[in-house]
Amino acid sequence: MKILLVEDDKTIASGLEYSLQQEHYSTVICHDVASAKEVLAEGIDQFTLCLFDLQLPDGSGYELCKMVKEQRDIPVIFLTVVDDEVNVVMGLDMGADDYITKPFRVRELLSRIKSVLRRYQKPSQAKNIIDIDNIRINTLVGKVFKNNAEISLTALEYRLLLIFGNHIGQVLSRNQLLEQIWDVAGDFVNDNTLTVYIKRLREKLEDDPGQPTLIKTVRGLGYKVGD
């Protein structure tokens, strides 16, 4: 995930950059409105979240927030020394998702970032259509299709496939899978049962179940669907 940080205090910016990178965020740092606008013009789609200082030498974080929100609905958090209701309300009315008042603890900011990102992730986790190669999951009607032909799945098989569909490209451990499918449809699910259901899904969905390309085993870690 890449974060755009616009902060005119270079010492604060450097400290925040280090902390964000320690949390495995990549960062782009700007120190004024003009350079931030150039970066956004080059490719706003590269960013997952924006942190904007409210008071900048050549303008304000309001301008940048307006620019971002007009192009894409990505989260914006304001950094401000002005704990002033008028400024806070104005920022939120412009579409900002949160604000934090300086001085702040880095841990508090990281917590706010994670909270805002979770809110934005919820719609994507509720997709009506999920495509995985030649497999399509229609969550509105609870049906699965392979090459446009419907595939009959049990409730637990469907739930297991949906978990994979909501985590495309991620390696899921057996424990993670077990936690999410436990007791679905009244069935007792243990490690051996999970193995059986993975096998059944492969038999129904893979072109060659013996050499699966859809539900891939990542040795020593778990399973992965997609790149």
Automatic annotation (TrEMBL):
Q: Does the keyword Cytoplasm apply?
A: no
Keywords of the record: DNA-binding, Phosphoprotein, Transcription, Transcription regulation, Two-component regulatory system
One GO term under biological process is: regulation of DNA-templated transcription
User: Any idea where the OmpR/PhoB-type domain is?
Assistant: 127-227
What molecular functions are annotated in GO for this chain? phosphorelay response regulator activity; transcription cis-regulatory region binding
Cellular component GO terms, alphabetically? cytosol; protein-DNA complex
* Residues modified to 4-aspartylphosphate: 53
The Response regulatory domain covers which part of the protein?
2-117
Give yes or no: UniProt keyword tRNA-binding: no
Q: Which residues bind DNA?
A: 127-227
* Listed PANTHER family: ALKALINE PHOSPHATASE SYNTHESIS TRANSCRIPTIONAL REGULATORY PROTEIN PHOP (PTHR48111:SF73), REGULATOR OF RPOS (PTHR48111)
Q: Any idea what this protein is called?
A: Transcriptional regulator
